[in-house]
Amino acid sequence: MEIARLIEAGVGLGAGLGLGGYAYAAMWPASQLFGATLQAPSMPDTLAMTFDDGPNPRWTPQLLEILARHRVRATFFLIGQYAATQRPLVRQMHEAGHLIANHTWTHPNLARTGRRETREQLLRTSGELESITGAPVRLFRPPFGARSPFTVGMARELGLTAVTWNAMTSDWSATDAEPVARALTAKITGNQKAGRATNLVLHDGGQHGLEVDRSASIAAAGRILAEYAGRVKTVTLDAWLAEAGN
């Protein structure tokens, strides 16, 4: 259903791309057709732990404890409307050394939003996050990875680098951490064999509610960190901005 709507939108916006090509350009994490995104550089022993859709007052604090135990700093792509209600938690995340990044205000599909709404989603979220932490926001991950032909360029005009990923599962619907961790381990191994770093996504929150159950995701994060402790270098995504020419 979602792809069908994107393909329908692509008739007007594709500018010569085939319908399947529009869907690929809009949704595939590795696609650069609608503008260059930060995915992962050629650093196979490097891992970036990133978390989307928070802050979640029920599960994010537990995740912070796990990260602190492993002495790992992560990148958090926060939904602005949730951050506005959880300002002390966002401040705690920032003060713990984690990188705070933009995941829009309400988590819309940006492949189907107009220029005005897209700009407002990005500006409002960056403004809120910067007012909480006192630090500039430089990274933005489009919800669902969805981009229109102007999304990446508009983000860049606002001082934001668009970020995708190269390791993700459907952890948001999982009830068991083991298959999530196993699938992500396989993706890390595949990236290493290909000579790439891993930009790994898990979800500590969800767009449909502030305190959604993310127990499987948090437990999977702990398993991944334990598995790769001492074997990879963990970084926040700003470490890759120079590599990407930003």
Explain what this protein looks like in three dimensions.
Helices cover 41% and strands 13% of the residues. It has helices at 2-13, 19-27, 60-69, 80-83, 87-95, 115-133, 151-157, 177-193, 215-228; strands at 46-54, 75-78, 99-102, 139-140, 161-162, 167-168, 198-203, 233-235. Strands 1, 2, 3, 6, 7 and 8 form a six-stranded parallel β-sheet that branches. Strands 4-5 form a two-stranded parallel sheet. β6 (167-168), α8 (177-193) and β7 (198-203) form a beta-alpha-beta unit. α3 packs parallel to α9 (215-228) and α8 crosses α9 (215-228). It starts with a helix and ends in an 11-residue tail after the last strand. The model is unreliable at 1-17 (pLDDT under 50).
